[in-house]
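Quick one, tokens below:
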């Protein structure tokens, strides 16, 4: 099939390359010419495991190309909209400027029978608005909403082998076209839910709201555990054995960040308020508040461990990305903690295997390193903020030789407290003794 993907960021670039790998003929379109230039030569503009390989293979096959001209999308049977929907400046709602601009730019290039399939995460009601507009100006084309559930770090696998497909459609024809796009996943037995626009849009924000709530739930338990000296990691193991609860997404720590969970729960709240149903999701404000409190808690612990003030003390912050195996620093708890410590006068050195460039672009005031040894050198305090494999594997005895003082905050509860204490460290986790 001929496919276009409009917006080639974390979602769109992977989608374009993966669709071409599956045998479709794909053009990726983005307004960012630098991004397009890099993608076109097989050099991904961001870090995502497995993307370089499928990008180069798809480019080599001749089935994938990139362009900054929306006219190059002409002739495609399906146009995926994968542009950003960030939090609007000065508010909590989603900024739909990019969706509207991409949609408008596509209108003159829609072939008869073409399907415009929205992938971006949007407030409920967006698809209906765009479909009505399409019916007016390009009635020969159809709209569908096909939300995306990929996780960064696993984006390639999640795109090729999604755990479910959701189509919001008004006509069975649009659903048939999407079935042809995802033929291999469907053949492999991927569950597929065909529904209306509003349900499809809500599925996406509900899924992210649920995940955010699960993380904040365990972080709320961590707050209580801290007060009474209980261990939240054991608590999570114990409740997680109940298959109705499940152990996944119950890791307490510095909380959730990234380009999606935080902005999606805020946008959902804002949309529900617009709809007069604010009270239905008022709990998401608590979810957000619990999450942000965990970052402050780390800063407080740092102060406590350093005798009341971090001023002038060297703090090594391990990790700046919002999670390992990604270079994404959008709303990253790790970076936020580093910035807060710096703001309090600490001599922060932040280190990350992939995220330094992005972090520096946002917070040039911080000192960065790509070498863990440099960051640890004569540190008064170590904060493990993102659980990259290399930080999880740190040896307490060896690490001790680099630092000025053996104090560590394990912001992800991934180290063995006994081993670190036995090696002479003052160890503090989050919600565990
Ligand atoms: N990153 C992720 O893991 C996932 C993201 N999503 C959703 O997908 C959407 C995109 O997210 P990301 O890829 O993370 O954002 P991103 O910011 O990495 O990518 C968005 C891209 O759209 C481009 N763009 C903006 N206006 C455009 C226009 N008029 N025409 C063509 N391109 C345009 C930008 O230059 C940028 O490259 C958001 O709605 C997000 O919530 C959904 C699931 C997973
Ligand atoms: O809409 C999106 O963009 C995506 O958002 C999340 O994916 P992602 O943001 O890539 O990362 P997650 O693995 O969900 O982690 C989100 C954050 O929660 C944190 N987290 C996760 C799990 C956990 O137990 N504890 C915890 O603090 C992570 O460190 C990270 O900061 C969802 O998992 C995807 O299904 C969804 O498609």
């Amino acid at each position: 099939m001929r496919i276009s993907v409009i917006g080639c960021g974390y979602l769109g670039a992977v989608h374009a390359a993966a669709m071409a790998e599956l045998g479709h003929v794909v053009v990726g379109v983005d307004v960012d010419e630098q991004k397009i230039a890099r993608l076109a030569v097989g050099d991904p503009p961001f870090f995502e495991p497995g993307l370089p390989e499928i990008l180069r293979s798809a480019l080599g096959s001749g089935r994938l190309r990139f362009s900054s001209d929306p006219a190059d999308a002409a002739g495609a049977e399906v146009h995926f909209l994968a542009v950003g929907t960030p939090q609007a400046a000065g508010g909590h709602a989603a900024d739909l400027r990019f969706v509207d601009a991409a949609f408008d730019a596509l209108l003159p290039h829609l072939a008869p029978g073409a399907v415009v399939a929205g992938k971006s995460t949007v407030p409920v009601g967006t698809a209906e608005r765009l479909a009505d507009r399409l019916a007016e100006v390009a009635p020969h084309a159809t709209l569908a909403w096909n939300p995306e559930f990929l996780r960064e770090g696993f984006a390639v696998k999640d795109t090729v082998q999604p755990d479910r497909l959701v189509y919001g459609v008004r006509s069975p024809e649009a659903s048939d076209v999407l079935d042809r796009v995802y033929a291999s996943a469907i053949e492999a037995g991927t569950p597929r839910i065909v529904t209306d626009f509003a349900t499809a849009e809500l599925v996406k924000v509900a899924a992210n709201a649920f995940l955010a709530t699960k993380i904040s739930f365990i972080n709320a338990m961590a707050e209580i555990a801290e007060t009474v000296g209980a261990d939240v990691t054991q608590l999570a193991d114990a409740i997680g054995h109940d298959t109705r609860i499940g152990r996944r997404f119950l890791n307490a720590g510095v909380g959730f960040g990234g380009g999606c969970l935080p902005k999606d729960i805020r946008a959902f709240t804002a949309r529900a308020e617009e709809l007069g149903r604010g009270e239905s999701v008022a709990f998401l404000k608590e979810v957000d508040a619990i999450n942000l409190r965990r970052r402050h808690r780390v800063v407080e612990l740092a102060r406590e461990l350093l005798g009341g003030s971090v001023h002038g003390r060297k703090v090594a912050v391990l990790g700046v990305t919002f999670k390992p195996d990604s270079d994404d620093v959008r709303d990253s708890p790790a970076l936020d903690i580093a910035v807060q410590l710096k703001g309090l006068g600490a001599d922060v050195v932040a280190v990350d295997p992939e995220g330094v460039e992005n972090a520096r672009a946002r917070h040039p005031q911080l000192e960065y390193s790509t070498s863990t040894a440099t960051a640890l050198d004569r540190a008064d305090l170590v904060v493990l903020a993102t659980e990259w494999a290399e930080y999880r594997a740190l040896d307490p005895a060896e690490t001790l030789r680099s630092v000025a003082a053996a104090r560590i905050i394990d912001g992800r509860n991934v180290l063995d407290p006994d081993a670190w204490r036995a090696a002479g460290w003052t160890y503090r986790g989050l919600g565990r003794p």
